[in-house]
Design brief:
Blueprint (H helix, E strand, L loop, with lengths): L2 H12 L9 H10 L5 H14 L3 H6 L2 H7 L6 H17 L2 H4 L4 H8 L7 H12 L8 H10 L7 H11 L5 H14 L18 H11 L1
The protein binds iron/sulfur cluster (SF4).
């Protein structure tokens, strides 16, 4: 068994991916709100936005200042307001029904043409908005993949490209949610709790620390 197969074997024992359908627009808006802020702040901003506007048409018809005020919890509200409005306008021009028949990577590529939608946002939108396989690389997936030694890229976008090629299609979403959970709970940026990690036997970082302790 190669390393990725062994990791997937462990992950499948502990995690399940259950797709809960969300609107495509919601996923894009929520992901833009989550840029450069905590989950808690972006969630609060998204809740405020959903309470304040009946639908996205109403949001688009309001002044920028109204949206800026509503999403201020997420920070960078001027930039995010512009991104959200632009993304929603551009999404309206896309035939989502037709596009959703394409394969995951092709859809992601199309979505990254929208201003403010990078590879991670596009992959999240495809995964949660359409229920297709993808492996969005956020800060947790980036850190854990590098420590495990399954990716070498220096940026999340590069690691996402690598994992897209290496991970078997049907396990991408599962690996995504697993690595996020592992990153949040044990593989913290500082002092990872390797003794509690289900992947330690397959981890490069753990192997190096363990070897150095034996010298
Ligand atoms: S063994 Fe340690 S470094 Fe490796 S993935 Fe688990 S927590 Fe992170």
């Amino acid at each position: 068994m190669n390393k990725i197969t062994r990791i997937l074997f462990e992950v499948r024992k502990h995690y399940k991916f259950k797709w809960v359908k969300r609107s495509f627009e919601d996923v894009i808006v929520q992901t833009i709100l989550s840029q450069h802020t905590s989950d808690k702040n972006s969630l609060k901003a998204f809740e405020n936005l959903k309470k304040r506007f009946k639908n996205y048409n109403e949001l688009l018809s309001e002044k920028d200042s109204e949206l800026e005020k509503t999403i201020r919890n997420a920070g960078l509200s001027k930039i995010k307001t512009k991104r959200i409005k632009k993304a929603l306008k551009e999404l309206k021009k896309i035939d989502l029904k037709k596009l959703s028949k394409e394969n995951s990577l092709k859809i992601q590529k199309e979505l990254t043409k929208i201003h403010g939608v990078g590879p991670k946002t596009a992959a999240i939108a495809v995964m949660f908005g359409l229920g297709k396989q993808a492996i969005p690389v956020d800060t947790h997936v980036f850190r854990v993949s590098k420590r495990l030694g399954i990716a070498k890229g220096k940026t999340p976008a590069k690691v996402q490209e690598e994992l897209e090629k290496k991970i078997p299609e049907k396990f991408k979403a599962l690996l995504h949610i697993s690595l996020i959970d592992i990153g949040r709970t044990v593989c913290k940026p500082r002092n990872p709790r390797c003794s509690k990690c289900i992947l330690r036997k397959n981890c490069e970082y753990y192997k190096n620390v363990f070897n150095s302790l034996n010298f």
